[in-house]
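step: validate -> pass
step: tokenize input -> pass
step: predict -> running
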Amino acid sequence: MPVFSQEQIIEHIAKMLGETRTPATSFSLILVKLDGLAELERTHSSAESNFVLLKYARLISHLVADEDAVGFYERDSFIVILNRANSVLVNQIINPLMELSLQRQVNDKLFIQPRIAIVNRTSQTKPQELISMAKATLEANKRKEIQ
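step: predict -> pass
step: emit ->
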């Protein structure tokens, strides 16, 4: 499965938001942010951060079905669109991503840790509304971790 560019994944979300869907055919958006990727690039190299980014891209694209979509978002994130998502399917994608974070160590320090937010389409009509909901969920979860 190809990994879309940011522009392509946003266009895909817009198309899906324009489709009439029932609860049974709704979709979910998963935002995967790779915390520490910018630090890895700054302290090591862009080649090292690109290696990590592509490793996650390959893993994600192998975990999703052909009817789903994966795209890069910003410099350190991915958007995954799951058609007909359910909790079992979501966990089949999230668990391997979280396990990979434990395997990416440089000099005995864990640099890359994915943070994941899942939002379901409700009444949003624009891609950015759905993405903003996912970003807000990521930030709220991060604040909870800090406290």
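step: describe -> The chain has a mean pLDDT of 83.
step: cleanup -> pass
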